[in-house]
Here is the input.
Amino acid sequence: MNLKGALRGKLTEKQLSHVRTSFDSVGDIAILEIPKELKTQEKTVVETFRRLHPNFHVIAKKSGGHEGKYRVQAVKVLAGEKRTTTEHKESGLRMRVDVNKAYFSPRLSTERLRIAKLVKAGENVLVLFSGVAPYALVIARHSAAKRVTAVELNPHGHKFALENIKLNKLEGKIMAVKADAKRWCSKAKEKFDRIIMPLPMTADKFLVAALKVAKKNATIHFYAFAHEDAFATAEHKVLKACKKAKRACRILQTVKVGQQSPRTFRVSVDFKVL
Here is the structure.
């Protein structure tokens, strides 16, 4: 039985129409989405959820959007232990995170593995906006990449990245850097075979910088939000940046990797720099 079914008889039909049955599971923390229409019934929703999912030690809710300098979505603990730190397991890896201080999405686990499987032996890989290093960890563990460089500005994300690299014994394959992506790319001496840009809201502002550190024939995975009828807008951003950077490119594919809202998706535009 899902949450809506368990709440039937406790809420009115109108209230039930606002119940969100999906939630994020990060380690032993469950992050719910409770709309304002259910504010007066929040306690009932949480108590019912806990009975359905007794394995979670912390029940929290999303509190606002992705805001601030580091685009972190604040969460508020509603029940269970009063903490926002946890250890999440994904693809045979352990990842520690504070969900209130660094961005982490468990919903991208399949996408991270997809990218790892595309990495060829000996590639030098760059992950911009790397957070607590989930992409870097999965690529380092599940590919034969020569090295993965993870660049993150958020000091909390960087701290957890360093911890996670050590926790998974990947010090020899991953280098974590605390820096602004644009500035770092402008000063970088090395070039990369593959670049991952998982910041769909504003990654287009960093495309020209990323192209500066892309080798000839490098592959870039550029993430954006796009309406289901307008995936071409994300591709246009790539072509526009390539033209500005005076780099020829070829779009390989545009992949739907998650849903942001009804009819709007997170997509990855995979393209080759020629």
Q: What stands out?
A: The chain has two domains: 3-83, 102-273.
